[in-house]
Design a protein that fits this description.
alpha+beta; 7-stranded antiparallel sheet; 17 strands; about 25% strand; globular; binds FE2/S2 (inorganic) cluster; binds fe (ii) ion
């Protein structure tokens, strides 16, 4: 009954949304909206879970915690990576409390039920004679790979990845995604509603004011005529460097029915910047078969929560995950080519510098935003012309929430 009442009041809220404007306060603060998001958005969409190189050997595993779910990704004895709900089939305890490692079995810390790396229950003490272990394997979680990137989805019927695998094959091949490795990763806890984090990532209206470091090299916030000129110069250079002109846009509301949304584009950096480094100089060996720096950076989007930035010599992956309706996490992976050697070919501090400082300042502005959004004086204001992608994202959120 309460649920029905919540649903109809949320439907009314969606109907009252003024296009081109920020969301109503309740979308950020109301636990009933979050419950609906869990069902309609969070449990139905793919999350980037890292790169396959993180689980190189049989028995290598990692655990991801997203909203109320915990998932174990593990490479089995047969070499295949699988994902399991980190929930014991006895009385539901988390089974694996470590973040990552290598193991032959997962022993539940509560009463010792033991699972192998294929998720099969292999030991359970003092159970009745007719107890069938084979009926108590860990539950599978949907798992998919896109050219070396791992994804999980908490729905048994996840959106198809086929379009992304097909249409992103060419741009991902430029950077040789299957043969990258994780050079560094970091997690940022952001005490704010998850949508504010992603909305912030979607627009660069704030970049000039909030990100002096980023604004030195990325051209997203300069006036269009200047940006056009820089962009044209990059396009002219691109082919000689081994890159291709590719543009893909099946993002958010443009996703094909039943498919995960995705996109690809490449944008120029300012003159003098080869990559996203402090001084504009190289950070790591060129990726894939690239022969030179074109002075650009590519944006990849994978569904609603995962975004990548591919410079010519490294890739930065962003995954935004809800913790609850007031807390989020941003995980960042820095990828370089697998044969690059730390110390010789790249320095982790230099590699991570730009997106670490930028994410720290994003965290500050997101938390300020969150504080203001909760005020009795908050009213949703109009988007600028530089917040178009955010506007589309918001429309997508509302469309998904409105699904019957
Ligand atoms: S809850 Fe895992 S063994 Fe009891
Ligand atoms: Fe930002």
């Amino acid at each position: 009954m309460t649920q029905e009442r919540d649903r109809s009041s949320i439907d009314a809220l969606i109907a009252a949304h003024e296009p081109g404007h920020a969301l109503d306060q309740r979308f950020y603060t109301d636990p009933a909206v979050y419950e609906l998001e869990l069902e309609k958005i969070i449990a139905r969409n793919w999350f980037l879970a890292g790169h396959v190189s993180e689980l190189a050997e049989p028995g290598d595993f990692k655990v991801l915690n997203i909203a109320r779910e915990s998932v174990i990704l593990v490479r089995g004895g047969d070499g295949a990576i699988r994902a399991f709900a980190n929930v014991c089939r006895h009385r539901g305890s988390l089974v694996c409390l470590e973040k990552s490692g290598n193991t032959r079995k997962f022993v539940c810390p509560y009463h010792g039920w033991t699972y192998d790396t294929d998720g099969r229950l292999v030991a359970a003490r003092s159970m009745p004679q007719d107890f069938d272990r084979s009926e108590h394997s860990l539950r599978s979680v949907s798992y998919g790979e896109i050219h070396g990137l791992m994804f999980v989805c908490f729905s048994g019927e996840p959106p198809s990845l086929e379009g992304a695998i097909r249409d992103l094959a060419e741009p991902m091949a430029l950077f040789d995604f299957p043969n990258l490795k994780v050079a560094a990763k970091n997690a940022y806890d952001i005490p704010a509603n998850w949508k504010l984090c992603i909305e912030n990532y979607q627009e660069c209206y704030h970049c000039a004011t909030a990100h002096p470091e980023y604004a030195r090299m990325h051209t997203l916030m300069v006036e269009p005529s200047k940006r056009e000129r820089l962009q044209q110069n990059m396009l002219d250079r691109m082919e000689a460097c081994g890159l291709k002109k590719i543009f893909v846009d099946f993002l958010d509301t443009k996703a094909r029915p039943g498919e995960m949304g995705y996109g690809y584009s490449r944008k120029a950096l300012f003159d003098g910047y080869l990559t996203g480094s402090r001084d504009g100089g190289p950070l790591a060996p060129l990726l894939g078969n690239l022969t030179d720096y074109d002075g650009g950076a590519s944006d990849f989007s994978f569904g609603a929560f995962s975004f990548l930035l591919a410079y010519s010599d490294h890739v930065v992956c962003y995954v935004f995950t809800p913790v609850d309706h007031r807390n989020s996490r941003c995980e960042i992976y820095w990828l370089v080519r697998a044969d690059a050697e730390e110390g010789r070919d790249y320095d982790v501090e230099e590699l991570t510098w730009l997106w670490d400082v930028t994410t720290q300042s994003d965290k500050t502005i997101i938390v300020n935003n969150w504080k203001g959004v909760r005020s009795r004086h908050y009213t949703p204001g109009p988007f600028s012309s530089m917040e178009e992608a955010e506007g589309i994202y918001v429309e997508w959120i509302l469309r998904e929430l409105a699904r019957p």
